[in-house]
Specification:
This protein has 2 helices and 33 strands. It is mainly beta. It is elongated.
Length: 485
């Protein structure tokens, strides 16, 4: 393609093809595009500059006439020049228009999962597929259409998936993208919790009666609760999957929690400790009863209680309060694989990029067009690339504003997930997710390069108390080789 252009009093013929280069920017494979135009310039002629529209039109008309006259010679001449110039082009991030690019990364890495009970994702294989046309482009899971571009500005219409759902599903497409990874083999999910549990609560182990203190110990008397859906000790939620957990009590006393099937045994509580049970079913006196030489005192006879607070006291007594207002129950957790399925949403909107001398700014405004959650996102990132010899570096700073509808759909807990009202959660407002990322690449040959990536993002603080969220921070790291087909 031949383009006529003018700079000052000099007219140029500009030769395409145009090459486009990419810079990764947005969290978790949301890519920010920066256009690199590789044009061969030929100075044709100079004309005096006159500040009139008619003069400009006359010069353009003259240039077009000369172009038609020289076209056969120019095509042959440009063909030689273009093959020479582009053969020497060292832009390893560039691809020609109407060209597919396929890369595969092979290495080792990991992305953490912020959800309770969620498995971290190994990053083993990182496939990358992209295509750039004159206007249309495809980058992994994104596609768009360039509405306007020049040396510094670019405006695109963009369609991209949401990515919050990848924390819930190991085989989500984002775990096959350059921000996720193809897992080698499958990792079994955490065992599903029982519908309800029998709970046995007792004090520290004591020597058996009639035996010396160094002899075998037995469990002292305690409290039995026939049915409960969740357990917390001193505001610490207990993971109700098979196994044994250990924690320290209010006085530094060791507490052991053993879960076998639908039975939870808590041993070692003392005065000052507090056990809170949610989703209980107290319909008769036998549903909450003493064991051994313990005494149980009820502060409420409410037979419709759905939560209990149990406080050990002196003399082997246990105070049981029904429907007590507690902090721990509200802080209870629910595993990611025990809630309703979270769907992937399709987002559509506008992307704008501006290139500075030493950095680039990228903005996206997106809304859900698939009616999954009806929310919207505003993404922003600044990329600082530099090169040291053959090594290419880039630091990215970004933020992602997510509407309350998005946060509620993915991180809220409602009746669709559990019938325990104490676990229900809904964020009160929108939130911002921050991100920082470091990329490094070293070309080794025409087909191979080394790549490393470190990324840290932090979920919005408005969902920090969600029963689904264990940690706000999400870390990713990868190091390996990239094969360029």
């Amino acid at each position: 393609m031949i383009i006529l252009a003018r700079r000052g009093s000099v007219h140029y013929l500009l030769l395409a093809p145009v090459k486009k280069c990419t810079r990764t920017g947005f969290p978790d494979s949301h890519t920010a595009r920066m256009i690199c135009t590789r044009l061969v310039k030929l100075r044709m002629f100079e004309t005096p500059v006159k500040n009139t529209a008619s003069a400009s039109l006359s010069r353009a008309k003259l240039a077009r006439q000369r172009l038609r006259r020289w076209r056969p010679l120019l095509l042959v001449f440009f063909g030689v020049i273009s093959s020479t110039v582009f053969a020497q082009d060292d832009c390893s991030d560039c691809v020609e228009v109407d060209t597919w690019r396929v890369n595969v990364g092979i290495g080792a890495g990991m992305r953490s999962n912020p959800l309770h009970g969620g498995d971290d994702t190994p990053l083993i294989l990182l496939p990358e597929v992209s295509y750039y046309g004159e206007r249309f482009f495809l980058e992994n899971l994104e596609m768009g259409f360039t509405l306007f571009e020049n040396e510094r500005h670019q405006l695109n219409a963009l369609v991209t998936p949401s990515y919050d759902q990848m924390y819930f599903n190991r085989w989500d497409p984002f775990n096959f993208s350059d921000a996720g990874g193809f897992t080698a083999g499958s990792v079994p999910a955490a065992p599903l919790a029982a519908s309800s549990y029998q709970v046995n609560i007792s004090g520290p182990m004591v020597p058996a009666e009639g035996l010396p203190s160094s002899g075998p110990a037995i469990v002292s008397g305690g409290v039995y609760v026939a049915s409960a859906r969740s357990v917390a000790i001193n505001n610490h939620p207990i993971d109700l999957t098979n196994g044994t957990q250990y924690l320290f009590g209010a006085d530094g006393n060791p507490i052991a929690v053993e879960i076998i099937g639908d039975t939870v045994s808590i041993v070692g509580v003392v005065e000052g400790d507090r056990i809170e049970l949610a989703g209980v079913n107290v319909s008769s006196a036998e549903d909450v009863d003493s064991r051994g030489n313990a005494e149980v005192e009820f502060s409420s006879a409410d037979s419709s209680a759905d939560s209990l607070r149990i406080d050990p006291a002196e003399g082997g007594r246990y105070l049981v309060t029904a429907n007590a207002a507690t902090q721990a129950v509200s802080g209870q957790k629910i595993a990611a694989d025990q809630v309703a399925h979270r769907k992937m949403a399709g987002l559509a909107g506008i992307e704008y990029s501006y290139t500075f001398a030493y950095a680039s700014l990228h903005l996206q405004a997106l809304s859900d067009f698939t009616s999954v959650h009806g929310g919207h996102e505003l993404r922003a990132a600044v990329i600082f690339p530099w090169q040291l010899g053959e090594q290419k570096w880039a630091v990215t700073l970004g933020g992602n504003y997510k509407s309350r509808h998005i946060l509620d759909y993915y991180y809220g807990v409602s009746a669709r997930d559990t019938d325990i009202n104490a676990l229900h959660f809904s964020p009160t407002s929108a939130g911002i997710e921050g991100m920082v990322r470091l990329d490094w690449q070293l070309p080794l040959s025409d087909h191979w390069s080394l790549r490393a990536m470190l990324q840290y993002s932090e979920l919005p603080d408005v969902i920090a108390n969600s029963p689904l969220v264990s940690e706000r921070g999400v870390g990713s790291a990868f190091f390996g080789g990239i094969y360029h087909f």
